[in-house]
Write a structure and sequence with these properties.
46% of the residues lie in helices and 14% in strands. By secondary structure, it is of the alpha/beta class. The protein folds into 3 domains: 47 residues, Transferase, Pyrimidine Nucleoside Phosphorylase, Chain C (Transferase, Pyrimidine Nucleoside Phosphorylase, Chain A, domain 3); 249 residues, 3-Layer(aba) Sandwich (Pyrimidine Nucleoside Phosphorylase, Chain A, domain 2); 89 residues, Pyrimidine nucleoside phosphorylase-like, C-terminal domain (Aldehyde Oxidoreductase, domain 3, Alpha-Beta Complex). It is globular and about 65 Å long.
């Protein structure tokens, strides 16, 4: 068997690795025989050289088998959704309890932020007491009792991916289609799912900025997942603007609570959330078609049942039982809150959405190193969307910062990210296409 450095050299030079070589490398990554530097070099070699379909399947399977693979005995289908990442992509927080309210079970294993995107795990970690890394027995119990549980990777589930995920975040290899596919599916296959819906983002705030790249990722995930026996469909959705009008960990939790309780239902966010949930219900046999599935999800929201499921999940994982009613008392708040208005009034034409995500990192809401701590209180709120009129009465957004200096930098970044003109731009649909 090749030494790790020889395997890296082979991939660097464009050679095809066999399944045994990949299995050995991932085993070394799991038990520590492969160093962080070697893992980073492997990720960069894959980034530039790519993997064939057999290599991609082998990497996914090896990462899945690096830990426990769950099996469930539940009275309903085990379903999940995953997003390729974006700015203001808060969908997982309300979607899991919405599907649970409709009879599904959602054991959602989420990651921390990658690059300029926020991580679902970092958002939930801003809830006091919420255990983002319970042991498997507690995880199983919460899923059974609450219908859903959103957690991070435990030491048992796809540990090789957990290590490689952190390295990708800080080595410029996040966008690799091969590594994204293996990372996502290793966690989902380890979770023992009956069905998976993938949300692949495209646009200025996505890792896959072009539609062709997004389609490539969607087809890769659907192909590898279905080949591994996991029924999967993908939706390609728009990320030319932040999906939610908030970006930042506690701010996005507050946004999700407002959505679940009906205080705020922004059209694009609602459309994407319901579309993904409908696909999940149909995959799980909980609705005969997408129209009926959408109606069931709307009912779960309007009845308050979805909000109740979210509350049960939070309480079962150690968070406050009355979070929805008293969010302002529990979620951390930044000491500096500043509205940012355009220099001239007008209509939002375009947004450099990725720059908004980087602004959140600059405020302390993301990482530049795997070991960095995150400030859960900082971020951006009430972000204007393309086509909105902005000026003295409507800000571009609101900066939540730890200090005045950091607020100054975020204000400059926010203004630079927005192009404001006199004409109303054409806006596309939130759901671009379906791969299934």
């Amino acid at each position: 068997m090749k030494l790790p450095q020889e395997l890296i050299r082979a991939k660097r030079d464009g050679q095809v690795l066999d399944a045994e070589e990949i299995e050995a490398f991932i085993a070394g990554l799991t038990d520590g025989r492969v160093t962080e530097g070697q893992a980073a070099a492997f990720a960069m070699a894959v980034f530039f050289r790519g993997l064939s379909l057999p290599e991609r399947v082998a990497l996914t399977r090896a990462m899945t088998r690096s830990g426990t693979v769950l099996a469930w005995d539940l009275p309903g289908p085990v379903l999940d959704k995953h997003s390729s990442g974006g700015v203001g992509d808060t969908v997982s927080l309300p979607l899991a309890p919405m599907v649970a309210a409709c009879g599904g079970y959602v054991p959602m294993i989420s990651g921390r932020g990658l690059g300029h995107t926020g991580g679902t795990l970092d958002k939930l970690a801003s809830i006091p007491g919420y255990d983002v890394a319970p042991d498997l027995d507690r995880f199983r119990a919460v899923v059974r009792e609450s219908g859903c549980a959103i957690i991070g990777q435990t030491a048992d589930l796809a540990p090789a991916d957990r290590r490689l995920y952190a390295i990708r975040d800080v080595t410029g290899t996040v966008e690799s289609l091969d590594l994204i596919t293996a990372s996502i599916l290793s966690k989902k296959l380890a979770a023992g799912l009956d069905g998976l819906v993938m949300d692949v983002k495209t646009g200025s705030g996505a890792f896959m900025a072009s539609l062709d790249d997004a389609r490539g990722l969607a087809e890769s995930i659907v192909g590898v997942a279905n080949g591994a026996g996991l029924r999967t469909v993908a939706l390609i959705t728009d990320m030319d603007a932040p999906l939610a009008s908030s970006a930042g960990n506690a701010l996005e939790v507050a946004y999700a609570l407002d959505y679940l309780t009906g205080q705020l239902r922004e059209p694009a966010f609602h459309a994407v959330t319901v579309a993904l949930g409908a696909e999940m219900l149909v995959l799980g046999g909980l609705a005969p078609d997408l129209a009926e599935a959408s109606a069931r999800l709307e009912k779960a929201l309007l009845s308050g049942k979805a909000a109740e499921c979210f509350g049960r999940m939070v309480a079962a994982l150690g968070g406050p039982a009355d979070l929805a009613e008293r969010a302002g008392e529990y979620l951390p708040e930044a000491p500096v809150v500043r509205s940012v208005h355009p220099k001239e009034p007008g209509i939002v034409a375009t947004i450099a959405t990725r720059e908004l995500g980087l602004a959140v990192i600059g405020l302390g809401g993301g990482r530049t190193r795997p070991q960095d701590d995150i400030d859960p209180a900082v971020g951006l709120a009430r972000l204007a969307r393309p086509g909105e009129e902005v000026g003295p009465g409507r800000a571009l957004g609101i900066v939540h910062a730890r200090s005045e200096n950091e607020a100054d930098e975020a204000e400059a970044a926010l203004r630079a990210a927005y192009a404001v003109g006199s004409d109303r731009p054409a806006t596309g649909a939130a759901i671009i296409t379906r791969i299934g």
